[in-house]
Amino acid sequence: MIFVYTNMMEYILSIAIQPPSVHSREMSEPALLARVFAGISEPTRLHIVLVLLEGERNVSELVSVVGASQGRVSMHLQCLRWCGFVESERRGKYVYYRVRDERVQQLINLARAFAASYHHELASCAVLNHEATRNETEAL
Questions:
Q1: 5 neighbors 14 (Cβ within 8 angstroms)
Q2: Tens digits of residue pLDDT in 71-110
Q3: Using one digit for the tens of pLDDT, what is the confidence trace for 125-135?
Q4: Calpha distance 84→24 (Å, rounded)
Q5: Alpha-carbon distance 129 to 98, whole Å?
């Protein structure tokens, strides 16, 4: 069966109602840990998390701060929420998002410390540079 989505929000709503995969219980530890890092490896998602670590925001505020479209921010918020990084609360006509677990702040702090110690190595890693170039090309 083929579904055609007329807009991004229709797609987001369609995946939001699907239950998590049964296969998630069968993932190996390395695969599961890789998904933790993948959850915040996309620059827009990471930017959203960094902003939310400063305090809760609604989608309009995040769009303004992050500088991405409303559809893109909503899509990334759905991923972050599904993966357990953020949670949401409806208040009137707005939905507010906040970091769900204080360990997210610890993870970011550790990553910042690691990046400070190894910034030259991270910046010059040929494999990461190749992957970034490939991802940019695919996005075009």
A1: yes
A2: 999 999 999 999 999 999 999 999 999 999 999 999 999 9
A3: 999 888 888 87
A4: 14
A5: 32
Cβ(51)–Cβ(62) under 8 Å? yes
What distance in Å separates the CA atoms of residue 108 and residue 102, rounded to the nearest whole number?
Answer: 10
Classified as helix, coil or strand, 62 is helix
- Residue 80: CB atoms within 10 A of its CB come to 25
Q: What is the per-residue pLDDT for 133? A: 84
Q: Which two tokens stand for residue 100?
A: 């769900």
Q: Quote the CA–CA distance of 74 and 65 in Å, as a whole number.
A: 14
What is the spatial distance between Cα 30 and Cα 16, in angstroms, rounded to a whole number? 26
Centroid of chain to Cα 89: 18
The DSSP output letter for 101 is -
C-alpha to C-alpha distance for 38 and 55, rounded to whole angstroms: 23
Residues 6+ apart with CB under 8 A from 52: 62, 86, 97, 98, 99
